[in-house]
Amino acid sequence: MDPILNLVAQNIPEPLREPAVELLTKVIGSQCSTLTASCLKLAVSKALGSGIVAASSIVKVPQILSILSAGSGAGISLLSYLLETTSFLISLAYNFRNGFPFSTYGETVFMCIQNLVITLLILHFGRKAGVGAGVLALFASAGYALFNSNYIPHDLLSTLQLLTIPISLGSKIPQILTNARNGSTGQLSAFAVFNYLAGSLARLYTTLTEVDDPLIFWGFLLSTGLNVVLASQVLMYWGKKGDASKAKKRQ
């Protein structure tokens, strides 16, 4: 990609060069005091990161609406959401405490909130509202500890971040197995699945460009692979209802 960006940087018309440098310097900083491939690469990463954060604020709203409309969380793995939210919460604390740019992890804030809403809805329609209250209290307590270095020192937080890789991967497997068992994706939102895949692909680029941390990169890379499997299942089972009654009974 660098040769393409070099070509773009060298061929920006002179009247536009100075305003472009001024704008990029204000938005990105001194790294873009001159138009180079590295500057444009960083600009692309910032734009992608901001887009991911913005899209994440609504990415799971269709899933929430689908559950509310059906009055059921049938076909949606509760374990998947519990594991994924745990992974998001640890990653959010790790990125924040390391001072990484918000554009490289901001979506985890919105994902955590939406995941908790979906989890509570699944429990509510499964007649387990009391369990939902306990889950909410547990995540609130864990979040407080993760953001406080007096409770969880940085070395322990790094270890927990390493554990988010198997946790994140494990969060996808129950949903994949549920889809395969039911022969359908139930109330799983196709919009959320495909946007999730697009976001994870873009995150690989922004992580390589702005975050020099292999723990985060490998987590996104492996997660992207399972997101591809989920997206494939959505296409495979498109329009198929599967055994909805059994799915609802299991849920």
UniProtKB/TrEMBL annotation:
It is found in: Membrane. Keywords: Membrane, Repeat, Transmembrane, Transmembrane helix, Transport. It is a multi-pass membrane protein. The keyword Repeat applies. The keyword Ligase does not apply. This is Mannose-P-dolichol utilization defect 1 protein homolog. One of its GO terms (cellular component) is membrane. The chain crosses the membrane at residues 64-83, 103-123, 130-147, 215-239. Belongs to the MPDU1 (TC 2.A.43.3) family.
